[in-house]
Each structure stands twice: as C-alpha cells, then as structure tokens.
C-alpha cells in the first residue's frame, strides 16, 4: 500500500474532525516516506493542529497543506483550486467526506435552514468539489486517472424516521456516485462509495445542535465504529492496484446488522 500511495497528493474535505481527520492520519501512517495531504474544512485551527500532529508522528516525508474551505460555496471551491500552489495541483485522490446531519424532526417540522445546510453541504458541496477536481484527473493520459472517494452512508440505503432529509441527501450522494462511475467507465478514474454505519464522531453533536449529552445518549449501550475503522477502508480502497475498483463498501457495527 505504501508503494502505491508514495508520491501522491490526497485532498480530504471535512478533515478537521471525525472520519476526515482519521483518514488524514491513516494516509500519513501508511505512506510516511512521501505523500502530500491537502486538508480542508471550515475550522482552520483544527486543521493546523492536525498538520502539527502528523509532522510530529511521521516526520517531514508527509507534507500537509491546511486550507479553510466551505464546500457549499461554489465560488470558494473554484477559487481554492485555482489558487493552489503549483506543486500541490497534481491531485491524485479526492476524499469527499465533508457532511453533516442536523435535527431529528419529522418531515412536516423540519427547519428550512436544516434542509438547506444538509443539501448544500452533503450533496451540492460534494458535487462542487468533484467538478473542480475532475478536470485535473481527466487531463492525464489514457482517458484520465485518479480516485474520487465519496462518503455516503448506510442512511442512503436504509432510511429511518426523523432522518428524511439526511437520508435523502445520502441517497443522492450514492446515486451521483453511481452515475459518475458509469460516465467515466472508459477512463482510469475510480469512482468509489464508502458507506459507514454508526461511527462515534462529532456527527451526533452537530445533529443535536451542540448538545453533547444528547449526542452521548445515542451511543449508550452499543459499540459504534470508530473513525479509524472507516479511515482504514478508505486508505485500503485508494491503495489497490490501478485496475482494481473497490466500488462500494458498506461498513457498520454489528448491532446495526
Ligand atoms: P464530524 O462532524 O466529526 O465531521 C464532519 C466534517 O465535515 C468536519 O470536519 C466538518 O468540518 C466538515 N464540514 C461540515 N460542513 C462543512 C462545510 N460546509 N464545508 C467544509 N467542511 C464541512 O462527522 P463525521 O466524521 O462522522 O462525518 C464525516 C462524513 O461521514 C459525513 O459526510 C457524514 O455524513 C458521514 N457519515 C457519518 C456517520 C456517523 O455515524 N458518524 C455515518 C455515516 C456517514 P468544519 O466544521 O470544520 O467545517
């Protein structure tokens, strides 16, 4: 895996916490000799802390570029790609991970702001990033080369009450991913879906508008996945031989079976 990742440039959205953060660390640990990581999210301080942690753990073989970026802002996404320093432009892997859930309301009561923020981040944000990065992949010889790894969710496959907008947004991610894979069938661009079940991160804190005790109650009495469990699958997927596409991974804790 280290050999196949060596020298690559990996871009991760939502790298300031949870699955995105663990994925950055897992890439760095897997290919410590030579890797470039572009880490994006809205919380720049957390990205800088992560850069320092990676430097401390694996040394200078992994270069890290932290960038403040809101994926739902299409102009900002275009500007970010246009302004990348020359040596950071040759991106090989895009991990579209930024996403969130907000609220547990039934459909008639869902707040307009929650609907907008979930769709503009989970769906439009992911499409913004894909449209911005794909041209870099398609410029490569033989129809193009690169990996787009989209984080959907078990919620995109198994909708539940009180999650209608979030579930719909993740079903949209899944459908977009499958369409894109078919559009790019003649290229060497791999379009991949990673669908986690319950993972303990800041996800539930965001769902309950910052109420940590409500978030903790979600995990009481069960053993959720850790973000590392998902990070390992993402890095495994990105480090397969070029002709091997791990198109779809569904990973859940056994209480969710
Ligand atoms: P976290 O809340 O820990 O992480 C979410 C990340 O997304 C943060 O880094 C956050 O950074 C970033 N983010 C949110 N909105 C934006 C935005 N507009 N622009 C850029 N970055 C943004 O949750 P998880 O790690 O659990 O979530 C990661 C992905 O995994 C999400 O897509 C989620 O839907 C999916 N998932 C999670 C599951 C779970 O049980 N935890 C289950 C299935 C899927 P910042 O706030 O700094 O911008």
Topology, element by element:
Elements: H1 2-5, E1 8-13, H2 18-30, E2 35-41, H3 44-58, E3 62-68, H4 74-82, E4 93-96, H5 112-138, E5 145-151, H6 164-183, E6 188-196, H7 203-207, H8 212-218, H9 227-238, E7 248-251
Helix pairs in contact: 2-3, 2-9, 4-5, 5-6
The protein binds NADPH dihydro-nicotinamide-adenine-dinucleotide phosphate.
CATH architecture: 3-Layer(aba) Sandwich
Query: What separation lies between the terminal Cα atoms?
Result: 30 Å
- Total discrete domains: 1
Structural class: alpha/beta
CATH superfamily: NAD(P)-binding Rossmann-like Domain
Beta-strand residue percentage: 15-25%
- What does the overall shape look like? globular
Please count the helical segments. Answer: 9
Helix content: 40-55%
Sketch the major β-sheet.
7 strands, parallel
């Amino acid at each position: 895996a280290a050999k196949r990742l060596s020298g690559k440039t990996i871009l991760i959205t939502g790298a300031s916490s949870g699955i995105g953060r663990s994925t950055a660390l897992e890439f760095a640990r897997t290919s410590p000799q030579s890797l470039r990581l572009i880490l994006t999210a809205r919380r720049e301080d957390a990205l800088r802390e992560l850069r320092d942690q990676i430097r401390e753990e694996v040394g200078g073989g992994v270069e890290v570029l932290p960038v403040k970026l809101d994926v739902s802002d299409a102009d900002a996404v275009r500007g970010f790609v246009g302004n990348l320093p020359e040596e950071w432009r040759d991106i090989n892997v895009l991990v579209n991970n930024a996403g969130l859930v907000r609220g547990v309301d039934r459909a008639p009561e869902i707040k307009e702001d929650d609907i907008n923020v979930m769709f503009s981040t989970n769906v439009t944000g992911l499409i913004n990033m894909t449209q911005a990065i794909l041209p870099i992949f398609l410029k490569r010889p033989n129809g193009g080369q690169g990996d787009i790894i989209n984080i959907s969710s078990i919620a995109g496959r198994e909708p539940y009450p009180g999650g209608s907008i979030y579930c719909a947004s993740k079903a949209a991610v899944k459908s977009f991913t499958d369409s894109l894979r078919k559009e790019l069938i003649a290229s060497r661009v791999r379009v991949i879906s990673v669908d986690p079940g319950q993972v303990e991160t800041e996800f539930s804190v965001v769902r309950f508008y910052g109420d940590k005790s409500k978030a903790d109650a979600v995990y009481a009495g069960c053993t959720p996945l850790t973000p590392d469990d998902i990070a390992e699958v993402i890095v495994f997927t990105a480090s397969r031989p070029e002709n091997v596409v791990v198109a779809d991974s569904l990973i859940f804790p056994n209480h969710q079976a």
